[in-house]
């Protein structure tokens, strides 16, 4: 039995805020696995564990400030999770060297579930912490989620102002933890969920020694810098957007497998002759090709506005970036079709990195005309994505895999990528989509022209 | 609150009672104005408000009446129809029930019922409220009942300046105006604002600005609400205190503006809770500022009993600073 | 001072006036100032009578609604008292006030339009039968709270008293109001302050369905009123000339500064309390007996017998009056309604002075 403790991530670090758990009780972890995200005064950092085994009890919940060295989780020997680890387990400060110094340790709301269940829950917009697990050890089964999904959503008790704010800040109330009486969601809860500053009660701080008021909870720090509260907001924004997309956009899907032999060969040759800093990755070629294809098939590059398609004058290529704590950002590569590859590479790298740190400028997220989602690095072959409204198409790229192909009657193995197109049937027809994928294929066969 | 200001007078200490008397004295310079009621003359007024005015203006215009509330209030209405500007004093709001017929069926109604022919320019003053161990028939707060009635204006001066200046504005109103003077305020002492020489009768006033919660009150509860706000500031809660001043017509705009900023409200009303003015204000907030609310509106009202005599029982019956503080804490929690 | 006289014989018809009866033609009549005056009284009573008879018809055909309290049988009181009032005097009435309003000179057109609820009504249709007002004629309604108008009348008188005016305020009320506190408070207040107030009690023997003897321990109302220290006496309310004479006596005394006077007009309504009233509480014989003392027929008969009224004149009078009523009905029918958009007008005074 080992403890996972708050690591010291710098000489001047005395404490850190747990932003997010990346593991759940029951997960098997190995030494070196990243298990949590911790925010320090300087940055948000993924932290790894130094033991192998099964994650037992999570001792602190996200948002909690934990002193360096204080236990945050128990990691047991690799085995089936014991009853000890189930969700209902109240997880106050565990017996440890500094129990009293862990502030505001509330019951962990982590729940036992599988990735499939989590996926289903996410898809159906279900908060797993509200689902009763009927499986072994309280595990939430697929049936549990499906049952919950078919049930009308529970009404969230929220103040009228909180509801109004939630709507204007695009926050899903169901995902906001209410701090009011009986768990009522109040305006500040929504603001916190949206990463906004709370309306601090009273313009001046309480007088020294003043009795604590119900609002006065010094042990929990919520503030604009707490990512633990930012991410649920992003999640709910995505949730709202995707729900709308799925409801409003009649999608059609096309898929084609593109031979990347030419492109890969060209790229490897080029990289061999380039300084390290200027070397390319396949993604750059793929994105540039998509941008050029979009210019060639303008019917897919633009926006569906007021019941009609408005083609865009430029290609602002949205790049879906998955964030560490879950969620997505889609910063836009402006003029991706006319950027040189090294420039595109550099811009992409910068955007992704800043997206993951939550440091995007508003202008960089504004109005992409077509989005690419590349799940290649996740090992996925084929992506059928959901269009970001008001765009009318989304290009999905899987991983580059070695694939047997017949070339001139000879069976050989080439790198290939499966490119998919999700397109809005209101704006275009299958033939247009086919033209796009064909154009993409053609462009990737002449990489030297990219 | 709109006030007309001049900068000539020097500040002087006065009481609420003296401020009312000075206002009457000023008003009596209009020949049409006269004061009428039980013991307003020789006795000097049940609460001493009109002390000395008989000597100054004579028995015709400082007119003692028999104990006939209905007759002398009705006579006030008739005199107003006949071109006078009567100020009728009723000893307490409980006694005013004997004149309720005249106030409702005539004063408030004649203008509309006559198709706009007969306006009733009169002022009816009376004492309201508890806190002086006067028992169940001298202590109630029924101004909310009157505020129910279309056709009359209902005032609750809570400050020295309003006591001093509301009467003139009330007498200028072409329609009947009821003025409720809380019995606990008569001895309130302070300095009149020398820059104010007129007030309006349309707007509520923010007596103490704040950011976290709106305490909406009037009359005798204003000092209690201000005391509560003081206490709350020690907790870091910044309470705004709103003095309604005019109970009918209510100044919705000022109420909603305040609630729109603080998003939380407590209504303090010494009347009984059921069917009260506090209920009306709460309902209006719900109607007009629902989406600004971050918590249910709380009410601090009197316990639903006839006001008892014994001191500790009476205190427990009425809103107190502590109960206001509790309600605020409940609202913001 | 008290010059109270009370009658104990109550219901007997007043003795015949002085002057020998003359045998005259039934179709012609001679005209003198006195006979012209009587003809005018007759005409006024007839207008009230025919107006109300027409109201019954209109109510039955649902042209007018609400409560309609008819004055039929009591016309002599309103017409007789009004003879003693001047234009600058004020009248405060009750819910049975069509007669008071018409006698006061409120045009039949305006009263009828009010019955119809039209904007040309004397209260713009806001009041209805029970709330007739005419500020120009100092007719202050139309008060449907029994005795509720009395304190108001005292106030009107008080205003005049305080300004040293010789105007008189006259208030009408019934025997039912005599049981109300507001009557007694007002009587006391008026006597105490010597207000120029004429209190006319129309004792028609019933407070709605309750007879005088069932509501008053002492049914001599004039005697009781005199206990407040004001002159009080009874008069035959079925005799317009008697009423007129009594009212003159009272108003002259009031104008002289004596203070309030109380006049009990003993009268009777020939019809039920209101249109809804099945009139189960009165004996048919009683009603018939009182109808025998109809004030209109009474005056007409006397004028005939004294050679002041011929059939032709009477016929002409009837035609004239019917014309007045018909014009009133027609103009009420044609009159516009108050727009609903103006519903909230006059709840409070409109800016820019009195309407």
Describe the structure in your own words.
- The complex is a heterotrimer of chains A (450), B (333) and C (355).
- Chain A is of the alpha+beta class.
- In chain A, 26% of the residues lie in helices and 22% in strands.
- In chain A, α1 runs parallel beside α2 (142-150), α3 packs parallel to α4 and α7 packs across α8 (341-356).
- The radius of gyration of chain A is 24 Å and the shape is globular.
- Mean pLDDT of chain A is 76; it is low at 80-109 and 203-231.
- By secondary structure, chain B is an alpha/beta fold.
- Chain B is 36% helix and 22% strand.
- Chain B is built from 13 helices and 16 strands.
- Chain B starts with a strand and ends with a helix.
- In chain C, α1 packs across α12 and α2 (75-82) packs parallel to α3 (98-104).
- Chain C is globular and about 50 Å long.
- The longest helix of chain C has 28 residues, at 33-60.
- In chain C, the strands form two sheets. Chain C has a six-stranded parallel beta sheet, with helices on both faces.
- Chains in contact: A-B, B-C.
- At the A-B interface, α3 of A face α13 of B.
Topology:
The complex is a heterotrimer of chains A (450), B (333) and C (355).
Chain A: E1 2-5, E2 15-21, E3 28-29, E4 34-39, E5 44-48, E6 53-58, E7 65-67, E8 71-76, H1 115-123, H2 142-150, H3 160-168, H4 187-193, H5 227-248, E9 251-259, H6 261-272, H7 282-296, E10 302-305, E11 308-311, E12 316-322, E13 328-329, E14 332-334, H8 341-356, H9 362-365, E15 370-374, E16 393-397, E17 401-407, E18 410-424, H10 430-445
Parallel strand pairs in A: 12-15, 15-16
Antiparallel strand pairs in A: 1-8, 2-4, 2-7, 3-6, 4-5, 6-8, 9-18, 10-11, 12-13, 12-14, 16-18, 17-18
Chain B: E1 3-5, E2 13-15, H1 16-27, E3 33-37, H2 53-57, E4 62-64, H3 69-81, E5 85-92, H4 93-96, H5 100-107, H6 110-113, E6 123-128, H7 143-146, E7 153-155, H8 160-172, E8 177-182, E9 189-191, E10 196-199, E11 205-208, E12 213-217, H9 222-234, E13 239-243, E14 246-248, H10 252-262, E15 265-272, H11 277-289, E16 298-302, H12 311-317, H13 321-332
Parallel strand pairs in B: 3-4, 3-5, 5-6, 6-8, 7-8, 12-13, 12-15, 15-16
Antiparallel strand pairs in B: 1-10, 2-9, 7-14, 11-13
Helix pairs in contact in B: 1-8, 3-5, 9-13, 10-11
Chain C: H1 33-60, H2 75-82, E1 90-93, H3 98-104, H4 108-116, E2 139-142, H5 149-162, E3 169-174, H6 181-192, E4 197-203, E5 206-207, E6 210-211, H7 212-215, H8 221-226, E7 232-236, H9 240-255, E8 261-266, H10 284-291, H11 295-305, H12 311-334
Parallel strand pairs in C: 1-2, 1-3, 3-4, 4-8, 7-8
Antiparallel strand pairs in C: 5-6
Helix pairs in contact in C: 1-2, 1-3, 1-11, 1-12, 2-3, 2-9, 4-12, 5-6
């Amino acid at each position: 039995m080992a403890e996972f403790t708050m690591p010291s991530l710098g000489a001047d670090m005395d404490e850190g805020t747990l932003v997010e758990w990346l593991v759940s009780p029951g997960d098997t972890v190995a030494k070196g696995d990243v298990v949590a995200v911790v925010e320090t005064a300087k940055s948000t950092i993924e932290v790894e564990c130094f033991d192998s085994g099964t994650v037992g009890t999570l001792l602190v919940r996200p948002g909690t400030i934990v002193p360096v060295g204080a236990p945050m989780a128990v990691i047991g020997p690799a085995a089936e999770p014991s009853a000890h680890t189930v969700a209902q387990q109240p997880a106050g400060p565990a017996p440890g060297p500094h129990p009293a110094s862990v502030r505001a340790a509330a019951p962990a709301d982590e729940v036992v579930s599988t990735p499939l269940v989590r996926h289903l829950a996410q898809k159906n917009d279900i908060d797993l912490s509200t689902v009763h697990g009927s499986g072994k050890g309280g595990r939430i089964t697929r049936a549990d989620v499906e049952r919950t999904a078919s049930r009308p959503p529970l009404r969230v008790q929220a103040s009228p102002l909180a509801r109004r704010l939630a709507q204007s800040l695009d926050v899903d109330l169901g995902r906001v933890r209410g701090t009011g009486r009986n768990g009522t969601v109040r305006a500040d809860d929504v603001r916190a969920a949206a990463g906004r500053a709370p309306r601090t009660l009273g313009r001046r701080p309480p007088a020294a020694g003043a009795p604590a008021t119900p609002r006065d909870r010094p042990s929990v720090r919520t503030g604009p810098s707490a990512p633990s509260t930012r991410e649920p907001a992003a999640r709910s924004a995505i949730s709202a957007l995707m729900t709308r997309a799925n409801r409003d956009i009649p999608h059609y899907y096309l898929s084609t497998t593109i031979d990347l032999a030419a492109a890969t060969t060209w790229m490897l040759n080029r990289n061999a002759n380039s300084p390290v800093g200027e070397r390319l990755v396949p993604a750059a070629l793929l994105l540039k090709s998509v941008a050029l294809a979009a210019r060639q098939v303008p019917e897919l590059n633009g926006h569906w506005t007021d019941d009609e398609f408005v083609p865009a004058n430029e290609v602002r290529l949205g790049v879906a970036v998955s964030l560490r704590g879950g969620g997505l950002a889609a910063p836009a590569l402006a003029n991706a079709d006319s950027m040189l590859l090294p420039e595109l590479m550099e811009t992409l790298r910068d955007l992704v990195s800043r997206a993951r740190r939550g440091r995007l400028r508003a202008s960089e997220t504004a109005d992409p005309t077509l989005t690419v989602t590349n799940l290649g690095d996740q090992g996925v072959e084929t992506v059928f994505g959901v269009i970001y409204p008001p765009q009318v198409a989304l290009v999905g790229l899987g991983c580059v895999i070695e694939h047997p192909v017949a070339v001139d009657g000879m069976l050989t193995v080439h790198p290939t990528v499966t490119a998919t197109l999700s397109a809005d049937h209101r704006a275009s027809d299958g033939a247009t989509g086919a033209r796009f994928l064909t154009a993409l294929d053609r462009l990737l066969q002449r990489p030297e022209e990219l | 609150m709109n006030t007309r200001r001049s900068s000539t007078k020097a500040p002087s200490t006065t009481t609420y009672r003296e401020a009312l008397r000075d206002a009457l004295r000023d008003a009596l310079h209009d020949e049409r104005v006269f004061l009428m009621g039980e013991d307003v003359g020789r006795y000097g007024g049940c609460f001493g408000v009109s002390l000395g005015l008989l000597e100054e203006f004579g028995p015709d215009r400082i007119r003692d009446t028999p104990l006939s509330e209905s007759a002398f209030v009705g006579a006030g209405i008739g005199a107003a129809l006949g071109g006078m500007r009567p100020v009728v004093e009723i000893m307490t709001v409980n006694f005013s029930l004997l004149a309720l017929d005249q106030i409702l069926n005539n004063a408030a109604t004649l203008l509309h019922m006559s198709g706009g022919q007969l306006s009733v320019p009169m002022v009816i003053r009376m004492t309201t409220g508890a806190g002086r161990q006067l028992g169940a028939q001298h202590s109630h707060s029924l101004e909310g009942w009157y505020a129910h009635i279309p056709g009359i204006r209902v005032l609750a001066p809570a400050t020295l300046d309003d006591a001093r200046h509301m009467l003139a504005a009330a007498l200028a109103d072409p329609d009947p105006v009821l003025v409720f003077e809380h019995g606990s305020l008569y001895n309130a002492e302070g300095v009149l604002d020398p820059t104010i020489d007129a007030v309006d009768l349309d707007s509520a006033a923010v007596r103490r600005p704040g950011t976290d919660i709106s305490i909406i009150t009037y009359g005798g509860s204003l000092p209690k609400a201000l005391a509560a706000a003081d206490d709350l500031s020690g907790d870091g809660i910044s309470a705004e205190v709103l003095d309604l001043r005019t109970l009918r017509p209510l100044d919705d705009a000022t109420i909603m503006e305040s609630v729109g900023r603080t998003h939380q409200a407590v209504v303090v009303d010494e009347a009984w809770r059921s069917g009260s003015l506090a209920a009306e204000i709460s309902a209006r907030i719900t109607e007009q500022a629902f989406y600004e609310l971050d918590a249910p509106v709380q009410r601090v009202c009197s316990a639903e009993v006839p006001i008892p005599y014994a001191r500790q029982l009476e205190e427990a019956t009425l809103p107190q600073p502590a109960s206001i503080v509790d309600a605020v804490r409940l609202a913001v929690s | 001072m008290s010059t109270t006289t009370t009658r104990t014989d109550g219901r007997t018809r007043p003795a015949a006036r002085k002057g020998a009866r003359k045998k005259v033609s039934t179709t012609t009549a001679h005209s003198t100032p006195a006979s012209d005056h009587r003809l005018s009284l007759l005409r006024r009573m007839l207008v009230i009578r025919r107006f109300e008879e027409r109201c019954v018809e209109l109510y039955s055909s649902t042209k007018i609604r609400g409560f309609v309290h008819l004055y039929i049988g009591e016309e002599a009181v309103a017409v007789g008292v009004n003879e003693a009032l001047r234009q600058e005097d004020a009248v405060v009435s009750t819910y049975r006030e069509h007669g008071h309003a018409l006698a006061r000179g409120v045009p039949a057109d305006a009263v009828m339009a009010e019955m119809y609820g039209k904007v040309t009504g004397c209260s713009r249709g806001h009041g209805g039968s029970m709330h007739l007002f005419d500020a120009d004629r100092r007719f202050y309604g139309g008060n449907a709270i029994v005795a509720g108008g009395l304190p108001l009348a005292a106030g009107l008188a008080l205003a005049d008293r305080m300004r040293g005016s010789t105007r008189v305020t006259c208030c009408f009320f019934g025997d039912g109001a005599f049981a109300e506190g507001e009557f007694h408070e007002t009587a006391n207040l008026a006597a105490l302050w010597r207000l120029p107030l004429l209190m006319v009690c129309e004792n028609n023997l019933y407070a709605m369905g309750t007879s005088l003897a069932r509501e008053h321990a002492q049914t001599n109302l004039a005697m009781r009123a005199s206990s407040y220290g004001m002159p009080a006496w009874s008069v035959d309310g079925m005799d317009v000339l008697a009423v007129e004479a009594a009212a003159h006596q009272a108003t002259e005394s009031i104008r002289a500064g004596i203070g309030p006077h109380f006049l009990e007009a003993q009268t009777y309504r020939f019809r039920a309390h209101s249109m809804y009233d099945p009139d189960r509480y009165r004996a048919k014989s009683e009603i018939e007996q009182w109808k025998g003392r109809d004030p209109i027929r009474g005056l007409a008969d006397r004028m005939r017998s004294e050679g002041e009224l011929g059939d032709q004149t009477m016929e002409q009078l009837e035609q004239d009056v019917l014309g007045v009523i018909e014009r009133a009905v027609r103009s009420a029918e044609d009159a516009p309604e108050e727009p609903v958009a103006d519903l909230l007008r006059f709840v409070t005074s409109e800016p820019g002075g009195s309407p």
